[in-house]
Amino acid sequence: MAKCAANYGPLTPITFLERTAALYPERTSIIYGDLQWTWAQTFDRCRRLASKISQLVDVGQTVSVLSPNSPAVYELNFGVPMAGAVLNSINSRLDARTIAVLLAHSETKLLFVDSQYMQVVQEALTMWLGGSTGWKPHIVVIEDRVDAGKISFKTFLPGWGVLVEYEEVIQSGDPGFAIRWPEDDWDTIALNYTSGTTSRPKGVLYHHRGAYLCPLVTVQWWNMPSAAVYLWTLPMFHCNGWGFTWGIAAISGTNVILRSVEPKPIFDAISRHKVTHLCGAPVVLNLIANSGQTIPHKVSVITGGAPPPPSVLSSMEEKGFDVTHSYGLTETYGPALVCTWKPEFEKFSIKERAKIKARQGVAHVGLQGVDVLDLRMVPVARDGKQIGEIMVRGSTVMKGYFRDEEATRQAFEGGWFHTGDLGVIHPDNYIEVKDRSKDIIISGGENISSIEIESILFKHPSIMEAAVVARPDPQWGESPCAFVTLRESSVGNITSEEIISYCRKNLPRYYVPKTIVFCELPKTSTGKVQKFKLREQAKALGHQSSKL
Questions:
Q1: Is the CB of residue 512 less than 8 Å from the CB of residue 546?
Q2: Where in the chain is the domain with CATH 3.30.300.30?
């Protein structure tokens, strides 16, 4: 049997928007402050946008955007692939030097920039083009309609060939533009750079197939109804919003977009717009849990990144949030494993449920395989004790790293994607992350999980946040060093000796941190602690006495 147009077509999330616009044209697609659009309007705007992009870049070329969450960023997630181009959403907290590196590495031909970031982009472009032959990217400036008062785009980068303001692009676009559908669902739809937990970001290539499958399986295991109201507390630049930029269109839901993540706007939006779902890294949950505010109805939450402390999960549940922990990486389009909830878990106490929810769970149905393998690539025992590296494979794993064949080869060695995370498998087949392979502390030949120490530290009533890394030790090789952020009321009222004493009562002796450093933790914009910076600080402290 031969494939033909009647029985085979490339999978692409563009179809989500086309279908929803036809099925629910008058349903609200986007709420942004006092602005609202319907799905018919969003589809129209994306086609207009695609028509203008197609005039400026060729199929397969990169279009970058630097902006906080906004309707424009949401539309670019459809408008760029509808033009046959590749979307690169840049982390909005990066400095000018790093932005310049990413623009050059991604070979950006067209850049959309929010007016808030005009200064940093000007610095980045100056760095990028300083040694060039004179080629300049096309630039479109997004003047925010809600967060007014920014410098006019017309004063931006004189002589650098500013195209027009974003709304002018939309209004002058062709509403009848013929969408450039992918010829193959292996075609690249997006380029996402790793978020900076290491000092060397890599460009992760997504194909249309993964961008279609991952949102569908995510909304499926999260049981999202078609009337879901999704609050954007997650950056859209992070894995295309974990795929929810496309997923909300798939279920014909409503996007409530927040430009910045702060407690009051979050709780106001939940009440005003009857928000049903939101996502966020543990840092966002921590912000909500410590806000002192309540919600009028239950809200479902997905959190990712490092395992959230059970204390934070308990606090969220007490406030009325139903939290599900998911595990994934940029290389897996966001969510890959999910802590699937079973009815029998309901009989446990809140604290016991929180401990279960802190596990990373099982693979979603979009993956063809997941396992924890030892150094011989042999599966570890399913006893919740033997540690190995978590590995996955399937259609929701990246194509590879852009312009980095060696890193791609290493990542896919043995027919698996190597996550770099260490974990165990429990008898019920649920996976639990124990540490990043580079974060595990080896003291006197014993492996110490920094995550287990952090979980204990989070339970201390004076501690807001904590991160643990290895510090050189003359006797044991390495010993735990804890970086701690105190609650405001506890600053100056607690000593490192008191925290160490607390750890002695709750941890094995060799797990107890020998050093406590009080500070603000360095993080990526997605809330991940940048442990490579903490390791540098710990190393700078030098060797310490091995006495405890």
A1: no
A2: 441-540
The more confident residue out of 137 and 538 is 538
Distant-in-sequence, close-in-space partners of 135: CB < 8 Å, separation ≥ 6: 129
Q: Taking the model in full, what pTM does it have?
A: 0.83
Average pLDDT, the chain: 88
Asked if 399 and 205 touch (Cβ cutoff 8 Å), the reply is yes
Instruction: Outline where 233-362 has alpha helix (H).
Output: 239-242, 244-250, 263-273, 282-289, 310-319, 350-357
For residue 481, report the phi and psi dihedrals to the nearest 5 degrees.
-125, 120
Is the distance from CB of 115 to CB of 141 less than 8 angstroms?
yes
441-540, CATH topology level:
GMP Synthetase; Chain A, domain 3 (3.30.300)
Q: Does domain 35-206 have CATH number 3.40.50.10330?
A: no
CA-CA distance, 282 to 68, in Å (whole number)?
19
Greatest mean pLDDT among 194-203, 277-286, 400-409, 533-542 lies in: 400-409
Query: How far is Cα of residue 183 from the mean position of the Cα atoms in its chain?
Result: 28
Q: Render pLDDT for 345-365 as a digit per residue (tens, 0 to 9).
A: 888 887 788 778 778 889 999
Mean pLDDT of 13-33: 98
Token pair in block for residue 346: 């309901």
Report whether pLDDT(114) > 50: yes
pLDDT at 252 over 80: yes
- What mean pLDDT is predicted for residues 5-12? 94
Place of tokens 């896919």: 412
Torsion 124-128-131-134 (CA) sign: negative
Cα–Cα distance, 480 to 473 (Å, whole number)? 9
E strand intervals along 281-344: 299-303, 321-329, 334-338
Decide: helix, strand or coil at residue 213: helix
Residue limits of CATH 3.40.50.12780 in the chain: 35-206
Rounded Cα distance between 546 and 103, Å, is 47
Predicted local confidence at residue 146, as pLDDT: 62
Q: Is 333 left (phi over 0), alpha (psi -120 to 50) or beta?
A: left
- Cβ atoms < 10 Å from Cβ of 540: 8
CA 509 – CA 354 distance, rounded (Å): 25
Structure tokens at 205: 């290539």
Highest mean pLDDT: which range of 18-32, 134-148, 163-177, 296-310: 18-32
Report the 10 Å Cβ neighbour count for 317.
18
The number of CA neighbours under 13 Å toward the Cβ of 151 is 11
What would the DSSP string read from start to end of 463-483? EEEEEEEEEEETTTEEEEEEE
Under 8 Å between Cβ of 309 and 261: no
Q: Which residue is associated with the tokens 């969450």?
A: 69
In this prediction, residue 352 carries a pLDDT of: 82
pLDDT of residue 197: 40
How many angstroms separate the CA atoms of 331 and 202, rounded?
10
Q: Where residue 198 falls among pLDDT bands split at 50, 70, 90?
A: very low
Kindly list the distances between the CA atom of residue 235 and the CA atoms of 239, 261, 442, in Å, as whole numbers in the listed order: 9, 9, 35
